[in-house]
Amino acid sequence: MTQIDREHPSLKHNLRIWRMYRDLYAGGYEFKARAGEYLMQRQKEAHDVYFERLNRVFYENYIGSIVDWYSATLFRREPSVQFDGGSESSLAFFSEFIDDCDRRGTKLSAFFRRCFTEALITGQSHMLIDFPRPEITARNRAEEDDAGLSRAFLVRYSAEDLINWSCDERGDYDWVVLRTILERQPSVDTPEIVKETIWTYYDRTDFRQYRRVQQTDGQTSIQLVCQGPHAMANQKRVPLVTLRVGDGLWLLNKAAHLQLEHFNKSNALGWAITMGLFAMPVIYSDREWNQIVGESYYIQLGPGDKFGWTEPDGKVYQIAASNLESLKEEIYRVCYLSQASGEGANGHAQSAISKQIEFTVTQEVLRAFGATVKEQITKVLSFIAQARQDEVEIYVAGLDELDITDFGTELSQAVQLLQLDIGSPLLKQQIYQRLAMKYLSDARQDTKDRIAREIEAHTQS
After folding, report:
1. Distance (Å, whole) CA 103 – CA 114
2. What is the DSSP letter of 130?
3. CA–CA dist 131, 154 (Å, integer)
């Protein structure tokens, strides 16, 4: 009996955290559908009142905008990938791979942007390096290329998909288990939905894939579908790469509880203001009061009776509004974006110099993110090159253009450096290639490779 469906001891705890973080990031209907998990019920609050508050709930989503801002800013320009050595077929493959890394038309930069966004939400994102399963046995590399067996591709897995794993003392995977759950309708004539669960086990040399199909009338047992050596068996490496951000850069983990506190207090203030619009009548009388009060009724008062309305004096509203603004600023501060909150200390607008100083911290955080992403891109491409036995060295640059200075400023600095006439052809080549790759960041990879070769040939001549 296989234990392929066994989960890692920490997974159950993490699943609850990840779902909350995803709700806070997404907002909208997904958050409102589970608002009962996040809107606190006051002590002895009537259920009818609480349910009415749930129906009127709203969510000011700051953390979702912050995560999207970091993703958009970091990938404002695509990373530059350059190759040293390698055959024409190898360079042609990588050129095609960078423009379509998952066989679905996704560019490598767009793929890693999604992985980076996922990592900011859950702290990690997983990428599986895979190759087509061979239906025939290729006798040489040429037959592999012709049959498409050497066409590597990436598969993105969320944090929840990795259900079990083991690592060695260096932190590398010894083995992993990935789980995919699919719900599908077998045919137009079959209305029932079939739930299919697929487990894939990878160790350093082999893989095994299991499947279980669950229908309305019950479920089948877990069946072994296929097994064998995987494409990275020669390197003794599990073909899963994980993009992780440190605890200090895990934005949802830093700001989630602040966002929840803001959510509860903003809804409490909104409810109080709404209730304040419906003033409650107050009767001052020594007599027994049994009259009905409403829009279609009238009341009769005695000579000594008094009538009035209750309404708050507004001080608590001002305190609540000030506290909400402080929470908002704190959300941006812990995410290293104090200058983007709109207010400075004590509620006063910041000067341009102050904002620039604070943005220096944001720059360093973005550079740390960029270094992490470039490291993983290099690792993925190098692992693929080793599996394909391509003798090519890979360099990844970029992800450091943070919109602080425009391209014209960098171009001016490059011109001044070239005017020094240092006498190094390699320096001149690197400057030209760096400028060209940044200016043509959204061009096809084969175009970039051709331009890089032309620049190299021109500077060496």
Report:
1. 16
2. E
3. 9
Structure tokens at 370: 């960029």
- pTM as predicted: 0.80
Q: Report in angstroms the alpha-carbon separations of 372 from 84, 352, 369, 397.
A: 22, 30, 5, 12
291 pLDDT higher than 60: yes
Q: What is the mean pLDDT of residues 37-58?
A: 92
Domain ranges of the chain: 408-461
Q: How far is the C-alpha of 155 from the C-alpha of 129, rounded, in Å? A: 7
308, 329, 319, 322: which is closest to 255 by C-alpha? 329
Across-strand partners of 92?
Answer: none
Residue-wise pLDDT tens digits, 432-461: 777 776 666 656 666 766 777 777 777 766
* pLDDT tens, residue by residue, 337-386: 987 766 544 455 555 555 556 678 888 999 999 999 999 999 999 999 99
Is residue 399 within 8 A of residue 375, CB to CB? The reply is: no
pLDDT at 404: 46
Q: How far is CA 179 from CA 79, 108, 111, 200, in A?
A: 31, 24, 20, 7
Cβ atoms of 399 and 112 within 8 Å: the answer is: no
As a whole number of angstroms, the distance between CA 185 and CA 192 comes to: 6
pLDDT higher than 80, residue 274? yes
Return the residue matching tokens 């009818």. Answer: 48
Q: Phi/psi of residue 106, each to 5°?
A: -90, 125
